[in-house]
């Protein structure tokens, strides 16, 4: 197909080129039907690079600002690629100037935006830019999303429109995903303010501000966690509470559950186990209604930890076993390995080595299935350690006394014990 | 350039047929018809009549008269070292012709540019042979010279030659493609084929950006040219947008120029003219004038924009030393900018006006 087309183009090109010099001859050759005559535009499309084609198209239509913007973007793409370390994922993709489809999309929407700008309809400008920001979903194209969202949200004219507000929410989301929580918080707070002032609805008919609440809830919780890790408990607690409050307002059950969980973790690390447990129980309810098994397991584990710290080992073990059963029934091998490991540790603490070994073995097997090397190693070591300890326990007195008879006894034992299964 | 007096424009004598080998006809330098007179200075250039001799002298011959002597006298010598030297001379000659033709063109003297462009093409063919890519610049130059004179048929042929050469060698640099597209754009604008003109100007801008960068003066010129086509199509909004872009870029450029100029003026070095080559200045002034006229003709006047362009013009004239015009434009700019409260240009314009006035009242100490 391509070969036929290119052959056609070549012949047409030849005619076009020679036409001016040998006008009479072309006239004679001109038996091809009109539909097969390629226009100047079609020739340019096949003959020139996609970059040149798009740039020329924009300029021809008078969209020079779009042209400058695209030109600068393409330049910066090449620069970023040149500065990227070798074998970075950025270099796996072809440069932007070779991706015709993306260029075409940028051209279309930037041109529309410029037209709208000339006519002075700022909202339309923002909508086009928002669309472009949403178009680039590939992780390699994040920088383009950032560019278009920023160019939409930071406009002097139209910067407070609905589209610009949505762009700001997207920016908050992107910054959060990139780990820049401070910037994310700033963007989300500004967007929420705009959304509250505007009173817009999202496509599903819910108020747009709820999006801001959900987003902010998550950001506050994450920030709280960061402060928790830095051991600044007061700020952390405040942020975590703020996060839960926002999440409740946002109305999204899973975000709410997550925020509660984070707040609970904060309380737990500051030592308020009673309050933490209450929150975790709410989490269990929420996750249960969402049928989020992972969340449930996580909450049970957190409850167990609080119980353990309070010294309520019985209940702790009960909770953990419940969560281990849950893991097994929904085939969450990695979680199972983790929970079993915790259970094994608790059993060995309360001096029940057999039970402990049993769980360590289960943990080891689950870790093998889930290919969790770290967990697998941990379980292996714990299992070996516990087995060895339970084995030498009966002979510990002989080991402690430095006499010939005790050594003899130990040697006897060694020779007679064979390969028993101790666990 | 002072007008050439007839007496100083070279001396011509009749050709003495006996002084040349037989069988070699002499042809006119400009029109290739049979020649009857020759330049008495170099004795290697011939003309059909005194008019052509005159035109050639004014156009280019005055500059290259003596250069032509070794080139043409040693044409038939096959000694490699002599040939090599001659090739170097020809290259130099091409360069001079190109520069002369370009400066005359930008000053709007198409007629005078013609001989230089002709000489450039002839020497290029002589040096590189016919149908080679090295001829493209010469073709374009000659086409531009003819365009100014309205010889559109000739232009069409020359540009086709150039286009064909470029089409055969697509790996050719961006700068040559840019020149070709610009000439083609200008050609189609004059013939009224505006859509095609747009296509070529768009390519012109694209290649200019690739070669010289987005903010270069070549790109800006391209914006101005394409705006003219849009103006002919009646798309005023686009023209306005393009002109404001052009005006802003030049404002940046001229402001920095003014700054360096003032620094030099403080150290009392008189270099007002050398800042900007004359031809470039003429071109810029012309463009700004067109833009200002366009804006003033609009029914809905953009005062902001008028202030910007007038300020540009004032700065340009100030730098090139014409205080009277600088004052004129500065007051136009001031008037426009005063209509908007707290306009950012009001202050720099007032400063410029003060400077102009102080220089006018002084008995011009720095200017000789």
Automatic annotation (TrEMBL), chain A:
Claim: Cell cycle is one of the keywords in the record: no
InterPro entries attached to this UniProt entry: Bac_ResReg_Asp_Phosphatase, TPR-like_helical_dom_sf, TPR_rpt
Stored PROSITE patterns: TPR
Main location: cytoplasm
Residue ranges of TPR repeats: 165-198
A biological process term (GO) from this entry: cilium movement
SMART domains noted in UniProt: TPR
Entry-linked Gene3D superfamilies: Tetratricopeptide repeat domain
Assigned keywords, A-Z: Cytoplasm, Repeat, TPR repeat
Keyword Repeat in record: yes
Subcellular location: Cytoplasm
GO cellular component: cytoplasm; sperm flagellum
Function: Axonemal protein which is implicated in axonemal and/or peri-axonemal structure assembly and regulates flagellum assembly and beating and therefore sperm motility.
Protein name: Tetratricopeptide repeat protein 29
TrEMBL record, chain B:
Matching InterPro entries: TPR-like_helical_dom_sf, Zinc_finger_MYND_domain, Znf_MYND
Keyword Zinc-finger: yes
Keyword Metal-binding attached: yes
Name under which the protein is recorded: Zinc finger MYND-type containing 12
Organism listed in the record: Xiphophorus maculatus
One MF term in the entry's GO annotations: zinc ion binding
Record-linked SUPFAM superfamilies: HIT/MYND zinc finger-like
Domain of life: Eukaryota
Keyword terms: Metal-binding, Zinc, Zinc-finger
All residue ranges annotated as the MYND-type domain in the record: 28-65
């Amino acid at each position: 197909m391509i070969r036929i087309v290119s052959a056609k183009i070549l012949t047409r090109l030849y005619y076009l080129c020679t036409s001016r010099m040998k006008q009479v001859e072309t006239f004679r050759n001109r038996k091809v039907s009109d539909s097969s005559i390629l226009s100047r535009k079609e020739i340019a499309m096949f003959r020139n690079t996609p970059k040149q084609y798009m740039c020329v198209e924009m300029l021809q239509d008078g969209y020079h600002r779009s042209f400058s913007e695209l030109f600068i973007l393409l330049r910066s793409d090449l620069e970023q690629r040149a500065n990227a370390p070798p074998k970075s994922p950025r270099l796996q993709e072809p440069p932007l100037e070779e991706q015709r489809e993306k260029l075409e999309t940028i051209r279309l929407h930037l041109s529309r935006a410029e037209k709208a700008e000339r006519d002075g309809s700022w909202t339309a400008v923002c909508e086009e830019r928002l669309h472009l920001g949403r178009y680039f979903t590939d992780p390699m194209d994040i920088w383009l999303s950032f560019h278009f969202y920023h160019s939409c949200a930071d406009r002097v004219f139209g910067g407070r429109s609905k589209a610009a507000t949505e762009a700001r929410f997207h920016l908050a989301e992107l910054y959060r995903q990139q780990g820049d929580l401070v910037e994310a918080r700033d963007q989300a707070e500004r967007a929420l303010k705009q959304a509250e002032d505007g009173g817009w609805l999202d496509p599903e008919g819910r108020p747009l501000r709820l999006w801001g609440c959900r987003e902010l809830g998550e950001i506050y919780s994450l920030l709280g966690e960061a402060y928790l890790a830095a051991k600044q408990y007061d700020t952390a607690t405040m942020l975590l509470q703020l996060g839960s409050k926002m999440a409740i307002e946002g109305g999204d059950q899973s975000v709410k559950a997550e925020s509660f969980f984070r707040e609970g973790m904060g309380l737990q690390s500051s030592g308020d186990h009673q309050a933490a447990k209450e929150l975790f129980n709410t989490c269990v309810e929420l996750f249960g209604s969402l049928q989020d098994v992972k969340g449930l397991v996580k909450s049970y584990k957190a409850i167990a930890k609080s119980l353990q710290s309070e010294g309520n080992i019985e209940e702790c073990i009960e909770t953990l076993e419940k969560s281990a059963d849950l893991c097994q029934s929904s085939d969450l091998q990695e979680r199972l390995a983790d929970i079993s490991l915790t259970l094994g540790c608790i059993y060995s603490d309360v001096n029940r080595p057999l039970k402990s070994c049993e769980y360590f073995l289960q943990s080891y097997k689950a870790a093998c299935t889930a290919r969790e090397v770290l967990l697998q190693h941990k379980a292996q070591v714990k299992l070996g350690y516990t087995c060895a300890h339970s084995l030498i326990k009966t002979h510990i007195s002989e080991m402690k006394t430095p006499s010939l008879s005790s050594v003899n006894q130990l040697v006897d034992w060694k020779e007679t014990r064979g390969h028993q299964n101790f666990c | 350039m002072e007008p050439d007096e007839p007496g100083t424009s070279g001396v011509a004598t009749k050709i003495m047929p006996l002084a040349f080998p037989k069988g070699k006809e002499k042809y006119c330098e400009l029109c290739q018809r049979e020649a009857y007179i020759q330049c008495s200075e170099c004795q290697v250039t011939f003309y059909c009549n005194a008019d052509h001799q005159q035109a050639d002298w004014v156009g280019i011959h005055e500059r290259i008269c003596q250069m032509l002597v070794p080139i043409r006298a040693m044409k038939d010598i096959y000694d490699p070292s002599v040939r090599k030297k001659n090739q170097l001379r020809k290259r130099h000659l091409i360069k001079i012709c190109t520069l002369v033709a370009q400066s005359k063109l930008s000053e709007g003297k198409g007629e005078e540019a013609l001989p230089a462009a002709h000489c450039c093409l002839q020497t290029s063919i002589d040096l590189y042979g016919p149908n080679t890519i090295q001829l493209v610049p010469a073709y374009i130059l000659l086409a531009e010279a003819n365009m100014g004179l309205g010889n559109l048929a000739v232009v069409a042929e020359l540009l086709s030659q150039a286009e064909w050469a470029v089409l055969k060698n697509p790996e050719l640099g961006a700068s040559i493609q840019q020149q070709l597209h610009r000439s083609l754009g200008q050609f189609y604008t004059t013939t009224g084929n505006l859509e095609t003109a747009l296509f070529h100007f768009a390519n012109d801008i694209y290649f200019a950006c690739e070669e010289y960068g987005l903010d270069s003066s070549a790109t800006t010129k391209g914006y101005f040219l394409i705006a003219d086509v849009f103006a002919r199509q009646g798309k005023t909004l686009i023209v306005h947008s393009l002109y404001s872009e052009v005006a802003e870029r030049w404002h940046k450029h001229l402001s920095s120029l003014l700054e360096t100029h003032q620094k030099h003026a403080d150290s009392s070095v008189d270099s007002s003219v050398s800042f900007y080559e004359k031809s470039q200045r003429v071109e810029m002034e012309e463009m700004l004038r067109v833009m200002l006229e366009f804006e003033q003709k609009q029914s809905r006047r953009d005062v902001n924009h008028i202030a910007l362009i007038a300020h540009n013009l004032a700065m340009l004239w100030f730098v090139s030393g014409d205080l009277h015009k600088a004052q004129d434009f500065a007051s136009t700019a001031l008037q426009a900018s005063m209509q908007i409260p707290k306009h950012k240009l009001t202050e720099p314009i007032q400063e410029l006006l003060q400077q102009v006035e102080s220089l006018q009242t002084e008995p011009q100490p720095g200017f000789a």
